Amino acid sequence: MPSFILDGTTYDYDRGEPGEIGTAKSWEYSKYPKIMATLTLAGGGTLDVHAQAQRWTHTHVLASWEDDDRRPHWAWLPADHVRRVTDSEWDIREFHRCPENLRSVRWADRLPGFLPA
């Protein structure tokens, strides 16, 4: 079972199965929707991660995300385990992942999350 480290904790997760993979469609490269994905963990339980949706079928979405070391991970999730996030929600996530000493470079005097809709 694959695993990743997020916020210093190791999680084992299920990569899932999309069903009929031949029907999968893709979003345009570099224009993947930003999502909150609910992963099913080994041994029960779930974990929400900020991810990007790369492909989809009628019932599943392929979500990809990065761990603490910026290594990519992916899983096929039921469509009801995925929701789009706003640019402001994503901006807050990026702020917290950015090293503290570099935050002033990217955000300057702007508070994270206050982006136009």
Between the first and last Cα atoms, what is the distance in angstroms? 39 Å
Low-pLDDT segments, ≥5 res: none
**How many beta strands in the DSSP annotation?**
8
Output the number of helix runs. Answer: 2
State the secondary-structure class. mainly beta
Largest sheet: 6 strands, antiparallel
How much of the polypeptide forms β-strand, as a percent range?
35-45%
Give an overview in words.
This protein has 117 residues and is mainly beta. Helices cover 14% and strands 38% of the residues. The chain has helices spanning 87-97, 103-107, and strands spanning 3-6, 9-12, 25-26, 34-40, 46-56, 60-66, 72-78, 82-84. The strands form two sheets. Strands 3, 4, 5, 6, 7 and 8 form a six-stranded antiparallel β-sheet that branches. Strands 1-2 form a two-stranded antiparallel sheet. β4 and β5 form a beta hairpin. The longest helix is centred in the C-terminal third of the chain and has 11 residues, at 87-97. The chain is globular. The model has no long low-confidence stretch (mean pLDDT 94).
Question: How are the SSEs ordered, and which strands pair?
Answer:
Layout: E1 3-6, E2 9-12, E3 25-26, E4 34-40, E5 46-56, E6 60-66, E7 72-78, E8 82-84, H1 87-97, H2 103-107
Antiparallel strand pairs: 1-2, 3-5, 4-5, 4-8, 5-6, 6-7
